[in-house]
Design brief:
This protein has 387 residues and is of the alpha+beta class. The protein contains nine helices and 15 strands. It has an eight-stranded mixed β-sheet, with helices on both faces. β11 and β12 form a beta hairpin. The protein is elongated.
Length: 387
C-alpha cells in the first residue's frame, strides 16, 4: 500500500510541476541493435547502405520496402519508396545462391519446395542458425486452402549461409544488408513488408521460354502461373503493389488488374535459323589432312563440352539425355561455311546449336595435294541433364 501511495504522490507532484514529457517510444532498430550480430552488422553495413542510397538519390533511412524473388532466375529484388503515394524504385538485386525443388507452389511439409505467392515478413530472427533470418507468413490464406490440411509445412525464411531445403538463401553479407533495411522500414512504421515469390522473371524471354516448356509437361500449373503473372505485370506497369485477394478455391485474385491493359500479342511462330548454301561440288571427296580447330582435338572437345552444357536448358523436361548430330562445312579458308542439325533436338535446341557453330573461331583448313580445300564434317553431341 505504501508503494502505491508513493506512486500516486509522484504522479500528483509531477502533474502539477509544469513539466511535460512524452511516453517513451519503442524504436525497433534500437531494439535490434541490442543483439550482437545486428550491432556488428550495423557497424559494417549501414554507412555503405547510406552511401548507396545517396548515390541513387533515395532518402535514408528507408521508409518502405518491397521484396520479390524469382525461382528460376535465382534473384531477390529490393524495391524502396519514400511515401505511400510514390512509385517503388529498384534499389538492389541479390543472387539467391541455392535452390530447392522446382517450379510450382509448396503444398506440404517435406516437399523441399520454395513457396510461390504473396507473403509478408512476420519474423526478425537475429539469432538464426543461418546467421540472420527474416520469416515469411507461409502458409498464407491460399496455401491453407490448397495445401495439405494437416502438414502444410512452415518455417520459410530469407536467410544467410547459402543452404536451403525450401527457403530463400543469400550470402551472409547480403542478409545483413537486407535485415538492416527491413529493420529500418519497421522502425519507420512499415508493419507490413510484402514479399512476392514468382516462378520466373516474366520480362526475361529465356525464363518465360523455360516456363512455357515446363507448362507443356505440367499443364495443371498454368492457372497458378497465370495468377502470378498478372500480379507481376501490374507492378511492372505501375510500380505500385497489386491488391491481392484469395478466392474461395484458394486462387489468387489481383483486385486492381485490368486484363485488357495487359493483353499480350500472340507469340510469333518459330522460324528456323537459315542455313547458308554451299555448292557441294566444291567439296573435297578426300583429303590428306583434316581441318584443325584452334587448340587441336582437345580444344574442339572443350567447345563441344561447353556447348552441350548450354543446351541442357532446352532439353525437354521428360528427357534426361538426347543425342544431336550437326553437319557443317569448313571452307578452304578455314571458315565455317554452313551448319545444319540433321538429327535430334528441337527447335530451340537446334537453333542454339547452329548459332554456336556459326560463331566458332576459324580453323586451320583441310588440304589435298598441298592445296587448301573445303570439306564437310559431322559431329554428334550428347546433351545430358545432371543429377
Amino acid at each position: 500500500m505504501k508503494n502505491f501511495a508513493t506512486f500516486i504522490l509522484f504522479v500528483f507532484i509531477f502533474s502539477h510541476s509544469g513539466a511535460q514529457t512524452a511516453a517513451p517510444v519503442f524504436n525497433f532498430i534500437d531494439y535490434q541493435r541490442s543483439f550482437p550480430r545486428i550491432s556488428e552488422a550495423l557497424k559494417k553495413r549501414q554507412d555503405t547502405l547510406m552511401k548507396q542510397f545517396r548515390e541513387k538519390n533515395l532518402d535514408w533511412p528507408v521508409k518502405n520496402i518491397y521484396l520479390r524473388s524469382f525461382k528460376y532466375d535465382s534473384q531477390l529484388e529490393v524495391w524502396v519508396r519514400t511515401g505511400n503515394d510514390e512509385k517503388y524504385r529498384l534499389f538492389k538485386t541479390y543472387k539467391v545462391c541455392a535452390l530447392a525443388g522446382t517450379l510450382g507452389p509448396k503444398r506440404m511439409r517435406g516437399d523441399y519446395q520454395v513457396p510461390e505467392g504473396f507473403y509478408y515478413i512476420n519474423e526478425f530472427n537475429p539469432k538464426s542458425t543461418y546467421h540472420l533470418a527474416l520469416g515469411l507468413n507461409y502458409p498464407n490464406s491460399s496455401d491453407r486452402i490448397l495445401g495439405d490440411s494437416l502438414q502444410p509445412g512452415g518455417d520459410i525464411y530469407i536467410h544467410g549461409k547459402c543452404v536451403t531445403t525450401g527457403c530463400i538463401p543469400i550470402m551472409d553479407s547480403q542478409i545483413e544488408e537486407l535485415y538492416i533495411l527491413a529493420a529500418h522500414a519497421r522502425s519507420q512504421g512499415q508493419d507490413f513488408i510484402p514479399v512476392h515469390i514468382f516462378p520466373v522473371q516474366f520480362s526475361n524471354s529465356k525464363s518465360t521460354a523455360y516456363l512455357a516448356r515446363y507448362l507443356k509437361e505440367f499443364p495443371e500449373y498454368a492457372e497458378l502461373s497465370g495468377e502470378l503473372k498478372a500480379a507481376y505485370q501490374y507492378f511492372d506497369k505501375t510500380r505500385h503493389l497489386p491488391i491481392m485477394m484469395t478466392g474461395e478455391k484458394g486462387e489468387y485474385i489481383v483486385a486492381n488488374y485490368d486484363a485488357e491493359a495487359f493483353k499480350e500479342k500472340a507469340p510469333p511462330k518459330h522460324v528456323a535459323r537459315p542455313v547458308k548454301y554451299f555448292n557441294e561440288d566444291d567439296l573435297a571427296k578426300s583429303v590428306d589432312r583434316l581441318p584443325v580447330y584452334p587448340g587441336g582435338n582437345s580444344g574442339f572437345q572443350s567447345f563441344i563440352d561447353q556447348t552441350s552444357r548450354e543446351l541442357v536448358e532446352f532439353l525437354p523436361l521428360n528427357l534426361k539425355r538426347t543425342y544431336v548430330m550437326i553437319e557443317f562445312i569448313i571452307d578452304k579458308n578455314g571458315k565455317l561455311a554452313s551448319a545444319k542439325v540433321i538429327k535430334g533436338g528441337n527447335d530451340e535446341l537446334n537453333d542454339h546449336l547452329q548459332e554456336k557453330f556459326e560463331n566458332m573461331p576459324d580453323w586451320k583448313p583441310a588440304s589435298r595435294l598441298e592445296k587448301n580445300v573445303a570439306i564437310k564434317l559431322k559431329q554428334s553431341i550428347v546433351v545430358e541433364r545432371g543429377e
